[in-house]
Amino acid sequence: MKAMLDQKVVRFAIVGTTSLVVPAALSAWLRLTTPLADQTIFAISSVIAIEMNYLLNHFFTWKKAGTFTALAGTWLRFHITKAFTFLIGQILFFGANYLTGNFFLAYCLTVLMMTFANFGLQKHYIFK
Length: 128
Known about the structure:
Radius of gyration: 15 Å
Oligomer: single chain
Largest sheet: none
Number of helices: 5
Distance between the termini: 25 Å
Strand content: under 5%
Structural class: mainly alpha
Order of helices and strands: HHHHH
Low-confidence stretches: none
């Protein structure tokens, strides 16, 4: 089990699953208890997922340590790329939600599509 957890792709999958389940649960709760629009709920859960993702990936997936400056550098690179991928995710979600008419299916499809881009960006740019 430890050997498997030493593989970055497995740790990335664990972080990704956590970052999907927690914001999805928040989305479900917001959708059931508030009058917020689907796009607003998706935006809120996306921000929560992004911050969870950074912290878990920094310390668990890529096992980065170091100075505050190093932490600030990865945080900045992470959030610069997230500004771009967040917008792409919003567009993909809008399209998927329009095409499927199902909030949760659109949510999961969008997250799945963005997962591949995020792993590549993290491996080759953010946590290099």
